[in-house]
Amino acid sequence: MQNAINWFEIPATDFDRAVAFYSAVLAVDIQKAEFMGEPQAFFPMDRESVGGAIVKSDRLTPSATGTLIYLNLGTVENLEQALERVESNGGKVYMPKTDIGDPGFIGLILDTEGNSIGFHALKPNE
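Request: output the structure for the sequence above.
Response:
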């Protein structure tokens, strides 16, 4: 098993609001589509990477206390910039950039839908 995770879904009650939030905060193009009868918006990925989507579905409920996923922001600079954009886009930062030692840096947010989401960036090579 190369990765423990290969797909994730972030539940949304207001699909368009959630897509706008993640597009703005992460500064990425998130593609909307319908999959298996549900609106989904796909985070950028390729066949070799972990993928995920924002999903509006009766089977999913946003939660601040359930499973916590960490989105890979790539660089510390990207992590800092994303955290700076959270509150102006309707979310809340409840753990600012925090050094976690060798694994790098994390920040925790509450998105517009009520989901607790982590951001992660590896430490830069020194």
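The chain is about 20% helix and 35% strand.
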